[in-house]
Design goal:
Elements: H1 9-25, H2 27-30, H3 34-87, H4 94-100, E1 119-127, E2 130-137, E3 152-160, E4 171-176, E5 181-184, E6 193-201, E7 214-217
Helix pairs in contact: 1-3
């Protein structure tokens, strides 16, 4: 059977006020002596004093906690501002950073290498004013994966009758991070020949060696 006295302090406090008030009002009918009432009031006084102290302490703790959080945030903001200045300074060393307990940059970061292999290029499909250009790495011709450290392939094209004699005759057509590349041409290019050379580039835009020259007519 559940206890008739509520367990939470707030519920108990409301309950005990009603209990004693009703008891005092109906003491004659309930045959409660004045001595019992005096004893109850004296004991209630101890509870009410302690409960008020407890509530005040809770309010003070909540206020202190909020103030603590605000002061910490302000302090952290100042620290971070100072650390940004330190990290941008030419005089700070990793030994300083370690002693301060702030971030020490990685010194063994692997540099991004320049591509050393060439794409294999295939004109897979010709449509009116369009080519589907597929490209693969020469070391893995049966896979679509790009070489490690490569962002994509630069597509360079010369449109005309004669093939280019050097790369200066090519113009940049686009960068594709995934095969195939779809070339789009203007109507005045119909009937001409598109000559392609591709090369891998890394995320910093550093290119590798050129592919072999491939070509296909531009269908009207």
């Amino acid at each position: 059977m559940a206890d008739y006295i509520p367990s939470p302090d707030n519920d108990f406090n409301n309950w005990q006020i009603n209990f004693l008030s009703y008891l005092q009002t109906n003491k004659a009918e309930l045959k409660v002596s004045n001595e019992d009432i005096v004893t109850l009031i004296a004991t209630q006084s101890g509870w009410e004093t302690s409960y008020e102290v407890h509530l005040n302490a809770q309010a003070a703790a909540q206020s202190a906690r909020q103030q603590k959080n605000e002061d910490r945030q302000a302090w952290e903001n100042e620290i971070r501002s100072q650390v940004r200045k330190l990290q941008a300074s030419d005089t700070i060393t990793n030994a300083h950073r370690a002693a301060l307990g702030i971030t020490v940059p990685e010194s063994n970061r692997t540099p991004i290498s320049v591509p050393t292999t060439r794409p294999i290029v295939i004109i897979a499909e010709s449509k009116p004013l369009s080519h589907t250009v597929r490209f693969f790495d020469e070391t893995t011709p049966n896979r679509r994966a790009k070489p490690a450290g490569v962002m994509g392939a630069e597509v360079w094209v010369k449109i005309g009758d004669a093939p280019p004699t050097n790369t200066d005759e090519l113009r940049f057509f686009g960068l594709d991070t995934r095969t195939p590349y779809i070339s789009k041409f203007d109507s005045e290019d119909a009937g001409k020949i598109a000559y392609y050379r591709l090369r891998w580039v890394n995320p910093k835009g550093k290119p590798g060696p050129w592919s072999d020259l491939v070509s296909a007519p531009i269908m009207p």
